[in-house]
Specification:
heterodimer; A: 153 residues; alpha+beta; Ribosomal Protein S8, Chain: A, domain 1; 2 domains; five-stranded antiparallel beta sheet; 41% helix; 20% strand; elongated; B: 372 residues; alpha/beta; Rossmann fold; Cytochrome-c3 Hydrogenase, Chain A, domain 2; five-stranded parallel beta sheet; two-stranded antiparallel sheet; 9 strands
Chain lengths: 153, 372
């Protein structure tokens, strides 16, 4: 059976001529406040888009109003996630999908770099250990190969 | 079930299963969203859970239809497999576990001994006390004895479904098996009721996840239900609410009002007096909920929903209390009011209905025998 996301839905362009809908304007005001807080207090924050009663039209309007910035990252961890920088610096549109491609979370992150992209120190240390072990194994294999070829001569 | 990994932290289990920190943050972000927590809680939850020990969970099924477990296994965020394999140690569930018979019973006893005072006890189904508890026995023990024994070492009891929480369908008049909810059998342990017939899967997994994260019983309403999921009525969050406020009601399931998606109040929708998260979390991974599919809410997460008259009678005409205890004059009074206005009516009828329900329940307390 087709997935829900596979059923084509066409979002009609806004019929309004007087600008954005009230809900979208309210979210944009909130984003301005969150950006000011980030700039002055260095305090990141986020808006859970799934908790808001938004129509597909509202969502499309909000996406259009924020636009697309220079960075788009794809995260492949327990399903695909897209982390899209918007045209507004510090505002990121994040979609998380599970391994069945179901949308499980959608949020606007107001931060310098989304936390999910960053690595933490113990991961860096574990990476250094893993790389050292990998090189040691490769060296051992090379040494063994060298020894056996010398023996054959 | 018991697999030698009981002492591992959540983080250690995640690493064993090849799940990265990022994958886990994503999982927690989705879970926080499902629980209506602030989105910033996702990374915080992830950080707390990484170092937490996985709690032992014992799942007991009594007088029930297994619909609640069917619901639980369809949780999208968090998924049941993620919860079972990484977050909790599900040490006994006679439906899901591979072991059977004496081996299964031995696994349960071992888990309860090893984690005495710390395990989470999940109960699904009401507890029949009639005929000395003979209506529901497993391994030679009655449900009521098994519950009392398992409750002794539990840190908390989570009642999954309206049967365990409020007695459910088995408790319906005339209650032939002498069925009772868990809270009427066990009085000395923290109890969390997750009602619904069945409950929303994400409400079950979300409540468990919240308990594991904080180690505390969440804020509960007067029926011991987590406020985060049961704080609003279906009506409060219904997308058809504007039609109710405008006085636009479907009169039959195939009239123009129904086709236009108008309010289903007059077709028996119990949304105004039903506390649950169907209108926000929805079902089947957020696809829809009954009202979105054109049928009124049955009120399945409220005590006694099965004995409150027809599912298709408007709330204003419904019998609040056991079947046959209706007051015709009050029905008439409320039915008359229902036709007149929309928004004002909503506030009045919902308030009166809730007050009447409360009174009926309060009066019922002194008349009905306690189980056990």
């Amino acid at each position: 059976m087709s997935r829900l996301a596979g059923i084509p839905i066409r979002v009609e362009p806004p019929a309004r001529t007087d600008g954005l809908g009230g809900g979208v304007t309210a979210i944009l005001h909130e984003i301005v406040t969150l950006l000011e807080r980030l700039a002055s207090l260095n305090e990141p924050s986020a808006i859970d888009l799934r908790s808001l009663p938004m129509s597909p039209l509202d969502r499309a309007e909000l996406k259009r109003a924020l636009g697309e910035g220079e960075v788009q990252a794809t995260l492949n961890a327990e399903g695909l996630s897209t982390i899209q920088e918007t045209r507004i610096p510090g505002v990121w549109w994040i979609e998380h999908r599970d391994s069945q491609d179901q949308l499980i979370a959608e949020l606007i992150d107001v931060t310098y770099v989304p936390e999910i992209l960053a690595r933490v120190s113990n991961e860096i240390a574990a990476g250094a250990r893993a790389l050292s072990e990998q090189m040691a194994k490769a060296a051992a294999v090379a040494a063994g190969r060298g020894g056996s070829s010398a023996g054959r001569q | 079930m018991l697999d030698g990994n009981e002492d591992l932290t959540v983080g250690e289990m995640l690493r064993r299963h090849g799940i990265s920190r990022r994958g886990f943050i994503k999982f927690c972000t989705a879970a926080a969203s499902a629980m209506a927590l602030p989105p910033a809680m996702g990374p915080v939850m992830a950080a707390q859970l990484i170092d937490a020990r996985r709690p032992s969970v014992v799942y007991l099924s009594f007088q029930e239809c297994t619909g609640c477990l069917e619901s639980l296994t369809r949780s999208f965020a968090p998924t049941i497999e993620n919860l079972i394999f990484n977050i909790i140690s599900l040490d006994y569930d006679d439906t899901l576990m591979a072991a059977a018979g004496e081996a299964a019973e031995a696994a349960r006893d071992q888990a309860m001994r090893a984690n005495f005072g710390k395990y989470v006890l999940i109960v699904d189904g009401s507890v029949p006390t009639g005929a000395g508890g003979a209506y529901c026995t497993a391994g030679g023990k009655s449900a009521v004895d098994t519950l009392r024994e398992a409750a002794k070492g539990a840190a908390a009891i989570v009642c999954v479904g309206t049967c365990a929480a409020f007695g459910g369908i088995p408790f319906a008049d005339p209650n032939p098996t002498g069925a009772w909810p868990v809270s009427d059998i066990v009085g000395d342990k923290p109890i969390i009721n997750i009602s619904g017939c069945p409950p929303i899967p994400e409400v079950i997994t979300g409540t468990l996840l919240q308990f594991v994260t904080t180690g505390k019983v969440p804020d509960l309403d007067e029926h011991l239900r987590p406020k985060v999921f049961f704080g609003n009525t279906i009506h409060d969050r219904c997308y058809r609410r504007p039609f109710y406020d405008e006085g636009k009601f479907a009169k039959s399931f195939d009239d123009e009002g129904a086709r236009n998606g108008w309010c289903l109040y007059e077709l028996g929708c119990k949304g105004p007096t039903t506390y649950n998260a169907c209108a926000t979390l929805k079902w089947n991974g957020g696809t829809s909920f009954p009202i979105e599919s054109g049928h009124g809410c049955l009120g399945c997460s409220e005590p006694g929903f099965w004995d409150k008259g027809s599912f298709y009678s408007a709330l204003s005409a419904a019998a609040w209390g056991k079947a046959g205890e209706t007051s015709p004059s009050k029905e008439l009074e409320m039915a008359g009011a229902a036709v007149v206005v929309g928004a004002a009516l909503g506030a009045v009828s919902a308030g009166v209905a809730r007050l009447r329900q409360h009174r009926q329940e309060h009066q019922g307390d002194s008349d009905e025998p306690k189980g056990g």
